[in-house]
């Protein structure tokens, strides 16, 4: 095979064959092939929502340009100076010698900064390669796009007689790298024999391959030695799966001995997207455009009572609260205890006061009696600790008393945490879970707040007690980008998602008041979880009607039906006239978003 075919990025997404057949029926072969291709690429921009209660778009643009430019300048200095010896010296001294760099100020002051001004407003600001644009959709000028680039062709320096040094990473790791992350140690699966610190390596990804009994497997054991020749495991399968080039931060031995840290610092990426994680916390939130549109489609009004049924990590909840100017009541629920902590952390960071987060199973969201909330009891720190680790039912308090269950660092040693001590309700915790929880404990309840582990459990809410309900349902997530494998879903599993979503929707219908609104959304391209849910809703509840959405920038929904299981099951989608009332975000469209679906229902008199 020609080397240039091998050392590039041209993945072909693998699907379960029946699922592929079904999607081809839904979209047509050519369109589905475009969707499939688009899913393997990240969007070429990052989307940021500004917390307009704490900052402004202009202030965020200013700060981000400064940070991004500095990062670029630093990494270009790294690129020039980071040879093997420098890297070893860096590892030894454990800090970078860049503190005297003051190039950023020069760039800011020397007039190379550009601003595109429209109607007196900055709509695009640029410094050299960094461009930040304000969203032009009316009322969404607090949404910013930070432009990335790609796919780039990378010169890996391969020659017939000299194979390149290589590192193979896991699929999840590669998907994160394509979004702008570095390669971290746990993501490394295999590498060439003689990797030293500071080596330039080609990074490729091991993607699941079809195995026996219709099962998929990666087939590369961690620690495998690569020769750079066709005798390497899955050599041919990795053709076209090269995601960039980087510099190793550890030797081969270190890579498989260490448990954390950066393994490869990416210097040449197929997709170059600025990494914005943990920047300007509280002032901004990284969020996909369709998710922001979902909050607008709900059209929450100040003073209303809103329920976000599957809310974690709180992206849409906080977007809703900000649209309401933090006035009213937003109740955010999620079934997972730890994820409710994530919501609370985000709410604290964003300094929002109208949101209350509860642990609640959305399938049991209606309370039988009036008393609707129970609180997690505090029983001292050990108990609290086990609560933080345990997703099982923790709330048995019958009296509704609120007791803070705050954890302080001094109350826990890492040994106590790592030892597990059987305090996790008998549930096995992997090392990764434990590390995650240690991080969670360290990070606590937001920047300036004490570390809090209090989670209230709700018993549910009274029927018709909300003005608006958002059901951003758990789904097959087949719209998420970038993805390098989609074979895990079968027709049966897709249908299970649909069933689960319908049950949640039944609860939403009961909770919203007559005259209220339900918004249903998913991040999947599967019509069985989108249009089929709308059909179910409209056919089951005659008092529901599809409502127009504002803004509406997504495409139309799918009209018609699809036969499954050799015609034994007919899945009904939209009827003519309904398609323009939903929003379907097609990853292959020019909007370049994730695959997403939004339907908005108006709730009429329920006794009809
Ligand atoms: C698509 S995510 C929600 C994303 C969130 N709305 C946001 O924008 O940040 C779906 C969430 O549903 C939660 N979930 C799954 N099953 C649930 C259930 N039975 N009850 C409540 N939440 C559930 C998951 O824990 C997950 O956090």
Automatic annotation (TrEMBL):
Q: Which UniProt keywords apply?
A: Methyltransferase, RNA-binding, S-adenosyl-L-methionine, Transferase
> Which Pfam family is one of this chain's hits?
Methyltr_RsmB-F
Q: CDD domains from the xrefs?
A: PUA_NSun6-like
- In this chain the SAM-dependent MTase RsmB/NOP-type domain maps to 214-604
Q: What is this protein called?
A: NOL1/NOP2/sun family protein
Check the record and name the InterPro entries matching this protein: MeTrfase_RsmB-F_NOP2_cat, MeTrfase_RsmB-F_NOP2_dom, PUA, PUA-like_sf, PUA_sf, RCMT, RsmB/NOL1/NOP2-like_CS, SAM-dependent_MTases_sf
* Single GO BP term: RNA methylation
The molecular function terms of the Gene Ontology recorded here are: RNA binding; RNA methyltransferase activity
Reading the lineage from the top rank, the first entry is: Eukaryota
């Amino acid at each position: 095979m020609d080397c240039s075919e091998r050392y590039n990025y041209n993945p072909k997404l693998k699907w379960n064959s029946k699922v592929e057949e079904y999607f081809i029926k839904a979209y047509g072969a050519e369109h589905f092939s475009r969707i499939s291709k688009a899913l393997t690429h990240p969007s070429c921009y990052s989307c940021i929502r500004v917390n307009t209660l704490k900052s402004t778009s202009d202030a965020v643009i200013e700060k981000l340009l400064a940070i991004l430019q500095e990062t670029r300048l630093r990494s270009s200095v790294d690129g020039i100076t980071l040879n093997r010896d420098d890297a070893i010296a860096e590892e030894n001294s454990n800090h970078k010698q860049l503190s005297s760099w003051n190039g950023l100020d020069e760039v800011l002051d020397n007039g190379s900064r550009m601003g595109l001004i429209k109607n007196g407003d900055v709509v695009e600001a640029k410094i050299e390669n960094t461009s930040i644009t304000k969203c032009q959709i009316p009322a969404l000028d607090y949404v910013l796009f930070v432009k990335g680039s790609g796919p780039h062709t990378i010169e890996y320096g391969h020659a017939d007689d000299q194979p390149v040094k290589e590192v193979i990473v896991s699929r999840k790791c590669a998907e994160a790298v394509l979004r702008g992350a570095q390669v971290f140690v746990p993501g490394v699966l295999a590498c060439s024999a003689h990797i030293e610190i500071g080596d330039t390596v080609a990074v490729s990804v091991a993607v699941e391959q079809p195995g026996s009994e219709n099962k998929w497997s990666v087939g590369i054991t961690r620690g495998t030695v690569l020769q750079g020749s066709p005798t390497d495991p899955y050599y041919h399968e990795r053709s076209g799966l090269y995601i960039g080039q980087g510099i190793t931060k550890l030797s081969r031995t270190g890579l498989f001995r260490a448990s954390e840290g950066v393994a490869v610092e990416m210097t040449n990426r197929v997709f170059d997207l600025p990494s914005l994680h943990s920047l300007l916390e509280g002032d901004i939130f990284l969020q996909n455009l369709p998710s922001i549109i979902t909050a607008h489609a709900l059209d929450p009004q100040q003073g209303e009572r809103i329920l976000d049924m599957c809310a974690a990590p709180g992206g849409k909840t906080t977007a809703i609260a900000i649209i309401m100017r933090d006035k009213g009541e937003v109740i955010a629920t999620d079934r997972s205890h730890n994820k409710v902590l994530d919501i609370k952390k985000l709410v604290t960071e964003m300094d929002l006061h109208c949101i209350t987060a509860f642990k609640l199973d959305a399938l049991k969201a209606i309370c039988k009696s009036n008393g609707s909330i129970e609180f997690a009891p505090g029983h001292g720190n050990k108990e609290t600790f086990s609560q933080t680790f345990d997703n099982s039912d923790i709330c048995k308090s019958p009296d509704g008393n609120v007791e803070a269950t705050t954890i302080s660092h001094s109350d826990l040693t890492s040994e106590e945490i790592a030892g597990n001590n059987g305090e996790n309700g008998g549930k096995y915790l992997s090392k990764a879970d434990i590390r995650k929880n240690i991080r969670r404990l360290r990070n606590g309840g937001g920047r300036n707040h004490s570390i809090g582990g209090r989670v209230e459990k709700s018993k549910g809410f009274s029927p018709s007690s909300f003005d608006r309900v958002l059901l951003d349902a758990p789904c097959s997530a087949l719209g998420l980008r970038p993805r390098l494998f989609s074979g895990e879903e079968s027709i049966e599993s897709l249908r299970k998602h649909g069933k689960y979503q319908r049950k949640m929707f039944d609860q939403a219908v009961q909770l919203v008041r007559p005259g209220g609104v339900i918004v249903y959304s998913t991040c999947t391209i599967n019509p069985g979880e989108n249009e089929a849910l709308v059909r179910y809703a409209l056919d089951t509840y005659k008092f529901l009607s599809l409502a127009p959405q504002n803004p509406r920038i997504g495409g139309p929904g799918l009209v018609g039906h699809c036969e499954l299981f050799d015609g034994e099951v007919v899945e009904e989608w939209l009827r003519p006239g309904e398609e323009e009332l939903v929003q379907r975000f097609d990853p292959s469209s020019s909007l370049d978003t994730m695959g997403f679906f939004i339907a908005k229902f108006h709730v009429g008199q329920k006794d009809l």
